Amino acid sequence: MPTPDGVQVTGPLQPGFEEVLTDEALAFLADLHRRFDGRRRELLAARDTRYDALAAGGTLGFLPETQEVRDGDWQVAPPAPGLEDRRVEITGPVDRKMTINALNSGAKVWLADFEDASTPTWENAVQGQLNLRDALDGTIDFTADTGKSYALRTDAPLATIVVRPRGWHLTEKHVLVDGERLSGSLFDFGLYFFHCAQRQLDAGKGPYFYLPKMESHLEARLWNDVFVRAQEALGIPRGTIRATVLVETYPAAFEMEEILFELREHSSGLNAGRWDYIFSVIKKFRTRGRDFLLPDRAQVTMTVPFMRAYTELLVRSCHKRGAHAIGGMAAFIPSKDEAANAAAYEKVEQDKGREAGDGFDGSWVAHPGMVETCKEAFTAVLGDRPNQLDEKREDVHVTAEQLLDVASTPGQVTEAGLRGNISVGIQYLHAWLGGQGAVGINGLMEDAATAEISRSQVWQWLHNDIELEDGQVVTRELVDRLVEEEVAELPGDPEQYAAARDTFLSVAVADEFAEFLTLPAYERMS
Ligand SMILES: CC(=O)SCCNC(=O)CCNC(=O)[C@H](O)C(C)(C)COP(=O)(O)OP(=O)(O)OC[C@H]1O[C@@H](n2cnc3c(N)ncnc32)[C@H](O)[C@@H]1OP(=O)(O)O
Ligand SMILES: O=CC(=O)O
Ligand SMILES: [Mg+2]
Fold first, then answer.
1. Phi, psi of 246 (to 5 degrees)
2. Where does the Malate synthase TIM barrel domain start and stop, copy by copy (predicted)?
C-alpha cells in the first residue's frame, strides 16, 4: 500500500481497510501528528507533575490564574443541528450489529465508542471507521450467524452520531509517523473527520465528538487547536465541529468552566462521566490512606456527598454558559431474571429522574432496552422543551471542600467487595483481551471505566493495609488467595483466564501503579 512520506502502516490490511487508510487520509493524520503530538506528550507529563504534588500531600482546587474566565461574560456556541434535544443518548461499540441497533434504538444520540466500550484492536479501530462511513451512506447491513439480518430503519429518525475517540494517553501502534506511534485520539478523530465530516454536513448534521479523560483546560485547548487545524485543512468552516467533554477526572472537576471556555466555539457541553470520575478520585489520592478511602464499589452511588457536589456543579457550570449538561451511565442492563429485571428498570428510572430533576438536559443508557425509560424520565421534566438550558441552577454553590469530601462517604470495605472487584476485573480483562470492550456481568454493564474502579480499589486497599469490615487486613496473600478462588468460580477451564489474571495482577497489585489498565493490556496485543 502506498503511504505518504514518513508514514508506515504496520497493521494487516483486511478487505476494505484501504478505503479508510487512503494516502490522503494518512497524510492528514501525519499533519496532525507533526503539529500536535509534542504538545500531547507535554500535557501527559504535566499530569505526572500534578500527581507528584498530590502524592506529596498537596490538594486540588479552583485555579487562581483562571479566575477571569470564571468571572467573564461569555457563552458557548448554540446547539448544532441534531444536538438540540439530547434527552436520551445510547452508547456502545462500533461493530456492525451494534451500530445498526444503536442508530435504530429511538435514542436522540448515539455515542459511537472507540473508548471505554472498545478494545482498540487494529480491526476494531479500522473496521469501526468503515462501519460509520457505511452507516452515513445508508449502506450498512449485517447478517448474524443465526440468520437474523439487520438494516437501518426508515420509519423513524436515526440517532445523531457523536464519536468518542480514545483518550490522549493511548497510542495507535499500527501507524507510525516519522518512526513514532500516532496518538489513538488523533487516529480515531482524524479518520472519522476526514471521511465523514462532509457526509454529516450533507445529511444536515455535522462532525460531533465526545472527548474523554481530560485532566485540564490545557488539554481542551489542544483539542480545540486540533479542530481548528482539521477544519482549515479540509475547507470546513471553523466552528462546525461540536464536542461534549466528559468531566471524568478529579482535576477536571475544578476546571469545568475553563474547559467550556477553551472549546467555546466548538463546545456542545459537558457530561458527568461518573465511572471514570470515581476511578480518578481513587487514583489521584491512592496513597493518602483513609482520607480518600471509598467503600465497596456498589456503595459509591450518585447521592453520596462528593458525587452530588460534582453533578450539581456540572449542571450549574454548563447552564451558566449555554451548554448542555448530560448525565452519566446507569450501569444496570436488562436481565432474563424477572425480579432482577424489574429492579434494574426501577434503578435506571430513579437515576434518570434524579438527573432530570437536577437540571441535566439528557442522559446515557447502555442498552436499547433502557432508551424509553430514560426518555420518559426526561420528558416528564422537559415536556416539549428540547432541553432545560433555561434552568440556571443559580441556587448551586459548590466549594472545593465539597468536591474533596470523600471521607464522609458512608459504607464499608468488605471481603465481598474485594472478591467482586477481583472477579469483575479478571472477567472484564478476559473479554477486553478477546476484543470485546464492554460486557454484561451480574446484571451490570462493565467497561474500561468500571473495571478501573475495581482494580484501583484493590490496589488502594492493599497498599494502605486497609482492614476489612470483618477484621482481615488486605494483604498480598489474601488477594492472591481470593484471585485463585474467584478464577476457579468462573465458567470453563481456569487456564483460559491466565492472561487476564496476569494483567489484573499487574494493575491491581504491583507496586508501580499503571496509569490506565488499558496501557499494559494494549502492549499484550499484537
Ligand atoms: C463508563 C462508560 O463509558 S459507559 C459507555 C461505554 N459503555 C458502553 O457503551 C456499553 C454499551 N453496552 C453494551 O455494550 C452492551 O449493552 C453490553 C455488552 C453491556 C450487553 O450486551 P449484550 O450482552 O449483547 O446484551 P443483550 O443480549 O441484552 O442485547 C440485546 C440486544 O441489544 C443489543 N444491544 C445491547 N446493547 C447495545 C448497545 N449499547 N448499542 C446497540 N445495541 C445494543 C444487542 O446487540 C442485542 O441485539 P440483538 O437482539 O439484535 O442480538
Ligand atoms: O465515560 C463515562 C464514564 O462514566 O467513565
Ligand atoms: Mg469514561
1. -80, 120
2. 160-405
